[in-house]
Design brief:
Blueprint: E1 3-4, H1 10-14, H2 18-23, E2 38-39, H3 50-73, H4 80-88, H5 113-128, H6 136-139, H7 149-159, H8 161-174, E3 180-184, E4 187-193, E5 202-203, E6 211-212, H9 220-228, H10 231-241, H11 250-260, H12 264-275, H13 293-304, H14 318-338, H15 355-372, E7 378-382, E8 387-391, E9 399-406, H16 412-426, E10 431-438, H17 445-458, E11 465-470
Parallel strand pairs: 9-10, 10-11
Antiparallel strand pairs: 1-7, 2-6, 3-4, 4-5, 7-8, 8-9
Helix pairs in contact: 3-4, 3-8, 10-12, 13-15, 14-15, 16-17
Length: 480
């Protein structure tokens, strides 16, 4: 699995308060890894920023109106009109937005030759039904397996890169900064430079009000809710594409494709349902899914609560480095239990955020403390499993592993028993920590974890160090 090595944010790079970026409506990304948010073109028309609300909307509609014009004119897949339409649907990677599924990079997905051809063929079928709405293109993501949220986002940012360039120029001036000239396709524009990329890469600033966790045309629940609240729309959907909400698998998506391409009325019912979805962007301020604030909060907490770490003798010995990691874990516990960091583990109404939020939060806290103490002990988080590697020095094979789990994890006990020992063997390390954060739902898992640990100790069998942190939010002193 790829690993995240640097949680640096835009606000940290610019030495700005995150609230400053929030106030002007600019997304504050991590600069070395993607955030799982996406540009949704259906949000363009409601943006507070004129560059998006007017320029981007015009660029987006004109682009697809041109594609539709050529698809109407084409008679075969070898004629000039078809080749022109295909060229207009060839979207390449647009690095710099820091959005998508990239774990240790910020490059997009783009459209390959096969996907472009397939996309074009289905679009031609839809146009031949008599549909001329440019939103037919993002709508295709509902039934085209390979067209995911990242590709819709890449498609949209490619098409409106001119409007985004204008937006970036204005924001850079508003912040009193100086940008650099970058080439995007055949355009030249001013952007901030990203110092955390090996190749010269721009930071493409993006408005927060065009971002969603998933584009509207991917969110089945929202579309179903919108259809159900409108009696006329509900009847149309029921009549033409009644099985749409059950289409979850590849097989069902194939069936849905057949249904929506059966007639103009069927596809129009789908578009009408999509257009009725409330146009709400993801709230980066409340961050309900813990996608954004983990990287911003860690430096705040570590600055308010510094930790002095003694540099181990050089070259590092594993035991010396392990003691440093234990101190970082102890400080993390203190921040959670005594200094309010536990609040970052929950959504509103006390619902725990996803386990990955806790994992990345610990990683960012550890990174901040290592950086503040100028330690060569570099934490990396594995985005696939949530384990954090502490690399001792460049070229040194041994690792100290920390795995962060929530008490709600159904595989909590089995993970402690087997998972970390497997990791330790694979990573050639002899030290590991199983860090469990209690956010409720612990039940008997607490006692079973202790039983596994005590049994291993009695048999003198190897086992990772068990650390349990109380992450349950306590009532204020006045309410106790």
């Amino acid at each position: 699995m790829p690993k995240v090595r640097n949680p640096a944010t835009l606000s940290g790079l610019l030495h700005l308060e995150p609230a400053r970026l929030d106030a002007i409506g600019v997304f504050n990304p991590t600069l070395a890894i993607d955030t799982k948010l996406f540009v949704d073109p259906l949000l363009f028309s409601n943006s507070r920023h004129r560059e998006i609300r007017v320029e981007a909307v015009n660029q987006y509609r004109q682009h697809f109106e041109t594609v539709i014009k050529f698809l109407v004119a084409t008679t075969s897949s070898s004629d000039v009109a078809w080749r022109t339409a295909r060229r207009l649907l060839e979207f390449h990677e647009l690095p710099g937005t820091c959005l998508g599924y990239g774990a240790n990079s910020i490059t997009g997905s783009g459209f390959g030759a096969k996907l472009t051809e397939r996309y074009l063929q289905v679009a031609k079928q839809i146009v031949d039904l008599g549909i001329r709405d440019p939103d037919l293109f993002p709508a295709m993501a509902l039934f085209e397996e390979a067209v995911g949220a990242d590709r819709i986002s890449d498609m949209a940012t490619n098409i409106v890169r001119g409007a985004l360039a204008t937006f970036n120029g204005r924001v850079i001036r508003e912040l009193g900064l100086k940008g650099e000239l970058f080439e995007l396709e055949d355009d030249s524009a001013e952007f901030l430079a990203n110092p955390y990329q090996k190749r010269r890469t721009p930071i493409i600033l993006v408005p927060t009000d065009i971002l969603r966790k998933l584009p509207i045309a991917h969110d089945w629940d929202d579309i179903a809710d919108a259809a159900n609240k409108n009696s006329a729309l509900r009847r149309a959907v029921s009549k033409h594409i009644g099985h749409i909400w059950a289409a979850k698998t590849r097989r069902d998506k194939n069936k849905l494709r057949t249904e929506v391409l059966a007639s103009r009325d069927a596809f129009q019912a789908l578009l009408d349902a999509i257009h009725c979805v409330p146009l709400n962007a993801y709230s980066t301020a409340s961050d309900p899914d813990g996608l954004v604030l983990w990287a911003q909060k860690a430096p705040e907490y570590t600055a308010r609560h510094p930790l002095r770490l003694r540099r181990p003798s050089s070259p590092y010995k594993l035991e010396d480095a392990f003691r440093v990691v234990i101190k970082i874990v102890a400080q993390f516990r203190h921040l959670i239990e005594q200094n309010g960091l536990s609040r970052e583990l929950y959504k509103e109404r006390g619902v725990p955020r996803h386990e990955s939020t806790a994992q990345r939060l610990f990683f960012a806290i550890a990174h901040s403390y290592c950086q503040a103490n100028n330690l060569d002990l570099s934490p990396e988080v594995d985005t696939g499993s949530g384990k954090i590697d502490f690399k001792l020095s460049r070229g040194f094979e041994e690792r100290i592993l920390v795995e962060v789990k929530l008490s709600t994890n159904s595989r909590l006990v089995s993970g402690y028993r087997t998972q970390l020992e497997t990791y330790k063997a694979a990573e050639q390390t002899t030290r590991a920590i199983y860090l469990v954060i209690d956010v409720g739902g612990f039940g008997s898992k607490h006692e079973r974890l202790l039983e596994v640990r005590n049994d291993a100790q009695a048999r003198r069998a190897p086992l990772s160090r068990l650390e349990i942190v109380d992450g349950v939010i306590k009532p204020t002193a006045s309410k106790r």
